[in-house]
Amino acid sequence: MTVSLTSQDPAHLAVDALVVAVAQRDGAPVVLGAERLPAQLRTELADAAALGITGAADEVRRLPGTGLAATVVVLTGVGPEDRVTPEVLRRAAGAATRELAGTASVGLALPADDAASVTAVAEGALFGAYSYTRYRASEVTKQAPVGAIQVVTAHPRDAAALAGAARAVIVADAVHGTRDLVNAAPNDLYPAAFADAAKTAVKDSGAKGLKVTVLDDKALAAGGYGGLIGVGQGSVRGPRLVKVAYTPSRPKAKVALVGKGITFDSGGISIKPAAGMEAMKSDMAGAAAVLHTVIAAARLELPVAVTGWLCLAENMPSGTAQRPSDVLTIRGGTTVEVLNTDAEGRLVMADGLVAAVEEKPDAVIDIATLTGAQVVALGHRVSAVMGTDDVRGEVVAAAQASGEQFWPMPLPSDLRAGLKSKVADLANIGDRFGGMLTAGIFLQEFVGQTPWAHLDIAGPAYNERSAHGYTPVGGTGVGVRTMLALLEGRAPTA
């Protein structure tokens, strides 16, 4: 995919489809920028309501491109005219390009006359221009995403707008790379294969300062990574801990990212219900987001050292699987009684957090599809963030800046009592209620005094419902934009 900026008259833009915005003004639809369209087309669109167009968000309609160089004009809804924010434009652009799969080139004549709006339109268009066809053998069922995107703006040579468009390509590559991993079938993406994919992604990025280190079964056992070993021992395909380090020449800060990478989660001996288990291939979305965030940071040449830890295991039931009442020793010596083998993500994350903290970063961010309780509390589109107050606030601010939704949650000290074990330092589950918070409190035990935030993306990481805005069905790539914005926020501007 390519993105370019142009100030050319939209009517004469040589593209297959021209996208314009429809807003809601006093309850009626109105085409924004209609004055730039040919007179005959303006006449046809003058009564958009008669065409069944409302201007609501996510509404996309195609009409003949009367008088345009483009074959069709695409109307994308932005909702109330007085609430058109960059994120609204991002979603409207994404909804349009998502619906235009199979179209070679698209022009977007949306209200984008400042750098923030241009960047949002470019990002949204790229996020929406995604398709996953790895397993489609028939050309009939394949639809290539939009290939060339032109954003119409009055200031196509503005340095900030150009930089925003260039950054959008890198961010979209990271989001799409994350989605590809999440969408991969678990018989193809197991821990060792994920480790190989990380090596390939780093090599193909061409970015400088990146290094990948992989710890296999033997190295994990020698290093005392009891969480990864315990969770992975039920599978014939052993666990891995992958370290992806980006080290710029003169780093001004040092941040560690830790991602949960359960390549398939059956629940283990505490097996999950069969209904919906197929979505458990997405239980590695946190590790995928970490991998591609580190690569994006390197491609952007941020002056921040970033180390990603991918905690990879397959949680399967078998004669060698861990059992409820087993006791594991996490790296660093903390013992954990396993009361439920389906609470496995926190076990592999504990190993990763300890390894990350040992390198003394300025802050640690962990990201995981950790608890069903997150979905109960916040639904399928809003992620949770817990941790030390300053870093938690930093995550929320980064999410707001990047267009993602993260809601701050507490870590109530009274819930810690529920993690007491009769035989070990900790139990891996606590009381049923407040399960998302209890999981966060469990992870807190492994970060010591290091500033830290825990991102629970259980619902938003995998979209099992209908596509919306720039979000496809399947892997969403959530978390990449927020973590990258946080890293950029730690990069000095002077």
Description of the molecule:
Strand 4 (60-64) and strand 5 form a beta hairpin. With 494 residues, this protein is of the alpha/beta class. The model has no long low-confidence stretch (mean pLDDT 96). The chain has helices at residues 39-45, 86-99, 115-128, 159-183, 191-205, 217-223, 226-232, 285-299, 345-358, 372-378, 389-402, 435-444, 480-489; strands at residues 2-6, 17-25, 28-31, 60-64, 72-80, 105-109, 148-152, 210-215, 240-246, 253-265, 304-315, 327-329, 335-337, 363-368, 383-387, 406-408, 426-427, 452-456, 462-463, 474-475. It is built from 13 helices and 20 strands. The strands form four sheets. It has an eight-stranded mixed β-sheet with strand order 8-9-11-10-14-18-15-16, with helices on both faces.
Rg over alpha carbons: 24 Å
The total count of strands amounts to: 20
Q: Total helix count?
A: 13
Q: What is the typical, i.e. mean, pLDDT? A: 96
Short characterization:
The chain has 494 residues and is an alpha/beta fold. The protein has 13 helices and 20 strands.
Strand-helix topology:
Layout: E1 2-6, E2 17-25, E3 28-31, H1 39-45, E4 60-64, E5 72-80, H2 86-99, E6 105-109, H3 115-128, E7 148-152, H4 159-183, H5 191-205, E8 210-215, H6 217-223, H7 226-232, E9 240-246, E10 253-265, H8 285-299, E11 304-315, E12 327-329, E13 335-337, H9 345-358, E14 363-368, H10 372-378, E15 383-387, H11 389-402, E16 406-408, E17 426-427, H12 435-444, E18 452-456, E19 462-463, E20 474-475, H13 480-489
Parallel strand pairs: 1-7, 2-5, 2-6, 6-7, 10-11, 10-14, 13-17, 14-18, 15-16
Antiparallel strand pairs: 2-3, 4-5, 8-9, 9-11, 12-13, 15-18, 19-20
